[in-house]
Amino acid sequence: MQLFPEQASTFAWQVDALYGYLILVSLVFSVPIIVAIFYFSIKYREREKFAVPREIHGSMVLETLWSVIPFFVSMSVFITGAIVYFNQYTPPDDAMEIYVVGKQWMWKFQHQTGQREINDLHVPLGRNVKLVMTTEDVIHSLYVPAFRTKADAVPGRYTYVWFNATKPGKYHLFCTEYCGLNHSGMIGTVYVMEPGDFDNWLSGNAGGETPVQVGKDLFENKLGCASCHAGGPQQRGAKLEGLFNTEVHLVGGGKAIADEDYIRNSILNPASQVVEGYQPIMPTFKGQVTEEQLNGLVAYIKSLSPNAAAAPAAKKPDEKAPAEKKPEEKAPAANKAAK
Amino acid sequence: METVGAIETGSYGTAKLNYLNNGSTLKSWLLTKDHKRIAIMYLISVSVFFLMGGLYAATIRLELLTPASDLLETGTYNKVFTQHGILMVFFFLIPSIPAVLGNFLIPIMIGAKDLALPRINLLSLYIYWIGGAITLWALMQGGVDTGWTFYTPYSTTFSNTYVLAVGVGIFINGFSSILTGVNFLVTIHTMRAPGMTWFRLPLFVWSHYAVSLIFVLGTPVVAITLLLVAIERVAHVGIFDPALGGDPILFQHMFWFYSHPAVYIMVLPGMGIVSELIANFARKRVFGYEFVAFSSIGIAVFGFLVWGHHMFVSGQSMYASLVFSFLTMVVAIPSAIKMFNWTATLYQGSISYDTPMLYGLAFMGLFLIGGFTGLYLGALGLDVHLTDTYFVIGHFHYVMVGGQVIAYLGGLHYWWPKITGKMYSEFWGRVAAMLIFVGFNLTFFPQLILGYLGMPRRYAAYPPEMQVLNIFSSAGASVLGVGLTMPLFYFIHSLIKGKPAPANPWLLPGLEWRTSSPPPTENFDTPPVVTWEVYDFGDESGLDLEAAKREAAAVNA
Q1: Which residues between 384 and 423 in chain B have a beta carbon less than 8 angstroms from any beta carbon of chain A?
Q2: Residue A19: which of B205, B87, B379 has the closest Cα?
Q3: Where are the domains of chain B?
């Protein structure tokens, strides 16, 4: 009988270690309490009906001890839990991005090279992979037990899961946010492949248009975005080159980071975030673009800012990875660069 | 103050006029203002809902015997677990202890004739019935499949089931809780007998005071949330659905702002009962009484600040998650304090193991697991792996069933002689308690392991390698089912053939044991004046210990 899922990501051991620590904490507190209950139950069982035992009101020392000690122990759980959480939810900058769209009841994946998959996800061993997720309908949640990570896919915004797989194999992929009739059928398989096999798989699965190509086509031809956003000072629309992950100043005095959610929102609700110096004249594209096409547009606009990932000034504060994890995460990236 | 005798042999229930035989027409029940009669009607109503919720649970465990979705279609399975959750949470777990035992006992425990607002009390029962009837009607029309959490936009835009009707039922039912909460608060503040100071209140009353605060402050929020769901469903006003310009995460914030404190609504009264059981069956004052009392208030207050721990993977800000995780760790401390104090109460006691005490001890064991698994889920990095898996199911059943239901059963056995004036079979009571304890652990412990393995909740079908643990769980559920059904039979048997209960079968000092069993309509023949400290088992309690000992010896001889 299997009791633990496989450990197949760089932070899986951290989650297991945290689990082990909590089991230890539970035992250290529970065993003495249970032993005391049994011991007292036997030693102080009723010997005479309606006896009057000595009255004890309490003890300030004991109350202090058993408030303060559990407090410090729970703080240790809090801190270690938070460290693991930040590792799980801080995608490295060099991660390979895969777009994910959930819909009742399937997972649709699209690689940067254009390959599309449904319910199956092929990823390379030892490389940082970041899933950029949204959904067409209700909330879903992408969960790979072997990687010890999950995150909800929420309609109307992007959420992220990242991992670095450490063991080739096939792993369960579940939807863990109840999404209706066929919720328990919204499952799939993650295939972790040796990098060479993965490259073969990619080249053997000619993928058609990449997200960037899809976006470029929409931008220049189908939606006609380029008629206002082609760049240049006389344009009615803001210049998009170099925009991604920079700070923009909004009409009304606000600021925003031009991340995926900002771009997405600017396409669907243009009037909600107008950049200073421009008029609120852009029409909404809500209802005219599918989630996949939106992903394409976002990917295209990101591709106009080739250095965005390296611009630390514009990084969001919650993307600070804990320092001690860095070398390990960077190692596979270095390999990749060496190739 | 009149000295209360030992075992009042002369005042066996049925001979005297009491609240049960004081009027036997249907009208005398349906229009009663007597908190005790209202409690009895609540008892029958919550039992019906518990039975229905239990049948749904049995269906779930039957379906999960095999990995495939073969007994039920997935759509039916989704309705079954949704309706199990809705009936159990809103119509059993939340009202059962306050509306049945709290209603019956709080006025008696503080030496009052009734609750402060008897008509409001009756009104709350009717509201509960109306809310329940609408919900049951919706279930019969075709039911609802959103999960008891009603997450948007599934519930507002996508589900084609009776979401609106069920929402209305729960909305109406909420007012029953609010009125009960207000009633308890007013009663505890204004109706205490002379000499019944705040620190002479039994801990059962303290815990109900804390619960009433949550009822009054929390329930309106869930009512408003469900109203907003209804508005979006009917009028397509964008509140939660992003396609209409709303925010689905907002719903989760509003829902859990009530529904997390609601967990404490369910378990705090149970903790109150356990304090009574441990103290009275060990014949000891609760160790650190003030700490146990204030820890209830602490749980009620901090319980309002931790709702975001349900949303660590929902896309809420990581810094918000940090704060919620920290506060979740803090709210664990008052529960730990209670646990330590109960254990210390046993020290140097004189412990007897009647059926209610078995439930009290079972609660301590199960709540240890329920509480600790809560810590696992509060730890951020671990929660990412565990949330929305069977680990969560296991955890909250350890709290809800291992905590609330076990405590409720313990309280029901403890006060059954007082409520009905009849003794139940002690033998069968102990057998049932054992079966429930064993069956419960066999059902829910495997679910904790399944959760770590990664089995998602609300799945009609699951991977085959998870079957063995599911078979254990279903086997345990059948033992648990037998154990839970047994009290129904021996309680009913006791009503017909049970021995009459003495006024004070265990010679305990609480005010409820100083009136006849069952009590008269006005609770006490003469209004009590309290001169003794709470949980005082000695001579100053006014109990005639010597007479009781002689009498016990005579019975044994």
Answers
A1: 384-385, 387-389
A2: B379
A3: 31-556
